[in-house]
Amino acid sequence: MGIIDILYDNFHYLVACLLFLIGFHTMLTHSNLIKKIMGMNIMDTAVFLLFISSGFVRGGKAPIVGPGTEGPYVNPIPSALILTGIVIAVSITAFALSLIVTLYKQYGTLDADKIAELRTKER
Amino acid sequence: MLHLPVLAVVISLLGAYLIPLIYHFRRNLASVVAVGISGLALCFSAATAVYVSRYGAFSYLLGMWSIPWGIEVYVDRMSAFMMLVISSITFLVMLYAMEDVRHELTEAPRKWYWTLNLLLLASMMGVVMAGDLFNLFVFVEISSIAACGTISVKGDRRAVEATFRYLVLSTLGSGALLLSIALLYMVTGNLNMTYISGEIQKAAFLYPKNLYAALTFMVVGFGVKSALFPLHSWLPDAHSAAPAPSSAVLSGLVVKIYIFALFQVLSRVFGPVIAGIPVETVVLLMATMAVVLGSVLAMGQKELKRMLAYSTVAQVGYVFMGLALGADRAVAGGMMHILTHALMKSSLFLAAGSVLYKTGKKNITDLAGLGPRMPVTMGVFSLAAASMIGVPLLGGFVSKWYLALGATDAGKSFYALIIIVSSFLTALYFLPPVISAFFGKQPDDSVGKGIDEAPAVMLVPMVILSIALLGVGLFPSLVLGLLGYRG
Amino acid sequence: MNDMVVQIITRILIPFIEVFAVYVIFHGHISPGGSFSGGAILGASFVLATLVFGTARFNRKFGHMVSQLVESVGGSWYILVGLFGILAGANFLTNKLAGFGMGRPGYLFSAGAIPVITIGLGLKVGSTMVTLFHGLIEEEENHGDH
């Protein structure tokens, strides 16, 4: 059937979109700060998955040129770009976690709603 | 000579890496080195601007790899203009910060302040020069993290909470941006902007929905980062909780480069393909709401820096409006507004910082009677406020005039009316602090016991900014000539 | 951690992890890997050492000043290698035309400036991982446990 074939061919994009929505929803609705960071990571991972899986060539070999290899290679450009993207995501996670440590030290709670309440009270 | 734009970015990065080492050996030398490096970057940007206005745009290939295999740096008139704006304002703000960080930051994070500022300078210049999409993305990320860093370096709980929210929302924007770059790469197979625009006609024919999605994600991604109206909720907290020099750079420069990057991508990558898609209408709608509602929200604020932050929301709307209207004069007005708003908002934030430095107070009502005690500071504040309202002979008037003329050129005179209405609203919230500073009194007349003017190293940058504002107002043709606009 | 089994096994394992990390960094131009992955593995070995042997003992061997030095020098190293290209008359970050020895493709000594940059960056990334971990751990240790 048409729709099953489409789903089978584009399964990786579907999973990536699903993960993006899960991460986005977690980031916006959960009030625990660490869950927000986890949601952020899931969202970034979804985008990486979409980008890398778009470079796959069916029947292709690993993109390493050596004696005796030829034929279609899997596209290496997305992997190289996403390596940079992963490093950026790691730096943002590290920065956000250190901010959370400071916030916990100063407010005593990890709940974003309670922190907002304390802030409006002190303003 | 052609190396200069890349060298400006490179020496700022080199300085950012070496400052922690220098700070360990000699404390005072670190700030001098940082200011010196930003001054060098200013000289390089000025030389590039002169070169581009004489010989036209040029592209520089890193590593001598020809495109599309190599990284291309493309410098045209608008990029050179933005580089000049970025480096000059950063230089003046860092000069101010040499004295101010001694007061606002504790001992430990001071070296990181200079590192983060130099990283921010390097990445902002990288954003305006980028010739391919992935380089743009990397520099946008570096500038976001560095900007968050310059807020949270203050260390108190308000700054940390504001930074957290800014970081989370900014990452959302980055995720959307990366997704749109991935979608564009999937259908065109290139990352270089020139090559994508060559392939995009075919792609628009075969995969139109993919392009709609890429366009939407790109507008949302850059919109979150540049605080376009409904996506602006992080801005008031972040810009009011930051140390004064960081607020000046954030409000004046950081939000603008994302607008510039969005319109560069829209014009260079998408080009004529978006003719049928109502991108401009949607952006104009959000820009109008920003302009009106930003001013309305600014009127209800008690704290000075928060009012200035909401005013930034409104001014960002002006720039979006100018660039989205599309007519020649409107685009020139939008780019001029980037320059004039950077000058005005930096003066305002630096003046607010001097008031905080000397009196320790941050509310608008605390400004009453301060005029005669701190004449230079409040003079700079009043001049910048007058320019924001749009008083003739000052820079703000010139950019608003060109925006209004451009709106009528594009056949949408409604937006000229919006500009006039919002200038009136701006006057409503800027005039009270200015009037009460010079003609008001504190309730118990206690201001002024031992308050005198801020130190010279903090006053000089503010005065230079005001002189530049007057200069742009009196001789706008110099700036317009730099932008390549004739007539 | 005072468990003797864990300490002995870690003592045996850490050199192997570091050798593998150095292998990944050095072969960045002829096989998958390079500075980021190799640096992350190197940093992971140091984090393992910190976890098992305690921060006090680790700080004696690899203190704050050393990691600061490695990070600053690593970053500047990349920029200085790039500036070589400008000094040689070509653009920034030029490889063959700036006079770096190219060697034979597929062998360890090849690709000009790339292994040079990779080594500097690999050390820097490893040091950054350690600094990030220590930054988060020191907050916890300064306040005891909640």
What does it look like?
The complex is a heterotrimer of chains A (123), B (487) and C (146). By secondary structure, chain A is an all-alpha fold. Chain A is built from five helices and no strands. In chain A, α2 runs antiparallel to α3 and α3 packs antiparallel against α4. Chain A is elongated and about 70 Å long. The N and C termini of chain A lie far apart (61 Å). The mean pLDDT of chain A is 87. Chain B is mostly helical. The longest helix of chain C has 30 residues. Chain C is elongated. In chain C, 32% of the residues are buried. Chains A and C meet through α4 of A and α5 of C.
Characteristic terms for this protein:
heterotrimer; A: 123 residues; mainly alpha; 0% strand; B: mainly alpha; two-stranded antiparallel sheet; 77% helix; 2% strand; globular
Distance between the terminal alpha carbons of chain A, to the nearest Å?
61 Å
Which range best describes the helical content of chain A: under 10%, 10-25%, 25-40%, 40-55%, 55-70% or over 70%? over 70%
**Overall shape of chain C:** elongated
Per DSSP E runs of 2 or more residues, the count of β-strands of chain C stands at: 0
Outline the biggest β-sheet of chain A: none
End-to-end Cα distance of chain C, whole Å, is: 19 Å
Mean pLDDT of chain C: 85
Approximately how much beta-strand content do the residues of chain C carry?
Answer: under 5%
pLDDT < 50 stretches of chain A = none
Assembly type of the chains comes to: heterotrimer
Provide the gyration radius of chain A in Å.
Answer: 21 Å
Number of strands of chain A: 0
Shape of chain A: elongated
Q: What percent of the residues of chain C sit in helical stretches (DSSP H or I)? A: over 70%
Q: What ranges of chain C have pLDDT less than 50 throughout 5 or more consecutive residues?
A: none
Please provide the ordered H/E string of secondary-structure elements of chain A.
HHHHH
Beta-strand percent range of chain A? under 5%
Structural class of chain A: mainly alpha
Report the total helices of chain C.
5
Secondary structure class of chain C reads: mainly alpha
Mean pLDDT of chain A: 87
